[in-house]
Amino acid sequence: MTTNDLPVIAAVDGSTHSLRALDWATREAVRRGLPLLIVHVRPLTRQVDEATGRREADELLAESVRRSALIAPDLRPSTLAPLDFPSAALVSLGRDASMIVTGSRGLGGFRSLMIGSNSLATASMATCPVVVVHDSRTDESEEPGTAGDFTDIVAGVAADESSEAVLRFAFATAASRPGARLRIVHGWTMFSSMLAGGPVLDRQAAAGAAERTLAELTSAHQGTYPGVEVEREPVNGSAARTLVTASATAALTVIGRRRGGESLGLGLSPVAQTTITHALGPVAVVPC
Q1: Quick check: 253 pLDDT over 70?
Q2: What is the C-alpha to C-alpha distance for residues 125 and 130, in angstroms, rounded to an integer?
């Protein structure tokens, strides 16, 4: 299997949140021309016998395949039901996946939590992009074959090499959606301008430097995807508020996660943590 046909993984557990994630993953697999792998992780902590657990998993996966077929009858997804801790299994499977798609909360989540622990752990540790599908703006009566009218792809970028992976993913996502606009958000402050060797006391000059930085970051990608409409948005201050607000009307909000801090629980920056926790629509976390 090549990097061009690695599957989109949809994690399901029977919750409404995971079914919305399955719908999103199905459509994304079709857009990108990728196979779909539907995964139900049978938790090690659940006290049921092997035969019962396997039967319940088979029933859930069969129902998930039927639901996916309502959206994409020709997709023919495969299924898997490993016995493991959910986030550990998904992180392991993600080594051979294009992306993992999860719901924002699972069956065991408290309604007061905006994101479940398994979704957060997977997004913090996976080596492939992880999409967390928040359904705050979704009508519960919506049929699985329908989709919203949101078309913007929003990407939050930093002024360094870590933005390359985010931009590659965001541009490819926008290119797969006809008519999509890519909004690229970059938060800057006078302190970040100073650290980058830019203007220190002149706010207008610092804003101009942020504009130029965004233009430099995106120029090569615009050459690769000339059909994608791009809007660059340098934001004076933290980008988190802008990204959360934009997520309400975005088809996808894309943020980065630095590699290397997983073992210490430091995979997500404050901006990424805020965005993935409070977003109103799907968020993709891309390892940088």
Answers
A1: yes
A2: 9
